[in-house]
């Protein structure tokens, strides 16, 4: 298993000792998921944390009409999990799906959480990761959803061209909370 990118990302949040690295890598496995495979199904317990080595992953729920509502997308070098479900020890409220063929490093929730108790530096990595990604990054997204219209949110998504080019139009429309027809109108309006 080539864990270079994984360890580089971990160390960006907090450097780990050799002992902690060894303990962490001992619980990791490399797995492949094909496009449209579910890494986690809504209603199931979250059994793994994932690190995306290659590919694209999306979180979605299903609304009352049976439509997929995308919440967020993750590209390479991202950590992915149903964090709220793990913390609450409850089934996940959403699905995690491979939107492209993916190669991931996965590690079991229970064993990883036991390592957090034993390895102070690993716990600090986890805290710093949560602070940056669940507080600092997530708060502006929530404000954006509440106060910005679909056109403004579309323009923000356009700023991340590498992600934008990888998404299907129905994923973008779902993420923005609009229909594909409304998305077409927004695109026409912008391209005038």
Automatic annotation (TrEMBL):
One Pfam family here: cNMP_binding
Endpoints of the signal sequence: none
InterPro entries: cNMP-bd_dom, cNMP-bd_dom_sf, RmlC-like_jellyroll
Domain Cyclic nucleotide-binding: 12-116
Top-level taxon: Bacteria
Protein name stated in the entry: Crp/Fnr family transcriptional regulator
Organism whose genome encodes this protein: Chryseobacterium oncorhynchi
Organism taxonomic ancestry: Bacteria, Pseudomonadati, Bacteroidota, Flavobacteriia, Flavobacteriales
